[in-house]
Amino acid sequence: MIALIVILVIVVALVLWGVGAYNGLVVLRNRVKNGWAQIDVQLKQRADLIPNLVETVKGYASHESQVFTQVTQARAGAVAAANDPNATTQQRAAAENALSRALVNLQATAEAYPQLQANQNFMDLQGQLKGLEEKIAYARQFYNDVVMKYNNRIETVPTNIIAGLFHFEQAQPFAADEASRQVPQVRF
Questions:
Q1: CA 108 to CA 102: how far, in whole Å?
Q2: Alpha-carbon torsion 84, 105, 177, 124, what sign?
């Protein structure tokens, strides 16, 4: 009789542990999705702000068409990746990193025009962009932290057993591509 009670207690403890492990994985998976959604919100705001910034700079630096084309194409690529439900995290990150590089070139171009630097509209747009870039950096860091916790939980014993049984897959962190690690080359 005691052996049956011990076995029953062990079975109940294992079931409770399994439920807790499963629920913990679900919570972390949802935090990963939420972290990506937060990045997405900031990236959408940035994409909406960029055309105004480009038009303002164009008024002062109309002969810098290559920079404007680069920013416009990079923004189009980022928006397309954001709207593609099949785009992977790496594809989205690559598109956003290309846009970030293009924005650096646009800002460097703007610095060559002192009259543009004095334009209040440009200064407001540049301030908004700077604030958004800081929010994006924070959102990326938050996302990557949650991805690390989630992936660690999936890979570590004993929760890896539950993760394997219920097909939890690793999430991909938001990583900079090799090109975005290079110092941009700006030529006038």
A1: 10
A2: negative
Count of CA atoms in the C-beta half-sphere (13 A) of 81? 21
Look at residue 186 in the predicted model and tell me its pLDDT: 42
pLDDT at 188: 38
**Helix ranges restricted to H, 61-188:** 65-83, 89-111, 114-117, 120-155, 159-165
Domain that holds residue 98: 15-173
Determine, yes or no, domain membership for 111: yes
Cα–Cα dist 42/156, whole Å: 32
Helix and strand tally (H, E) in the chain? 6, 0
pLDDT given at position 159 = 94
Q: Is residue 6 part of a domain?
A: no
Q: What's the number of domains the chain is made of?
A: 1
pTM for the predicted model, two decimal places: 0.75
Whether residue 4 lies inside any domain: the answer is no
CATH code, 80: 1.20.1440.20
Q: Is 182 within the bounds of a domain?
A: no
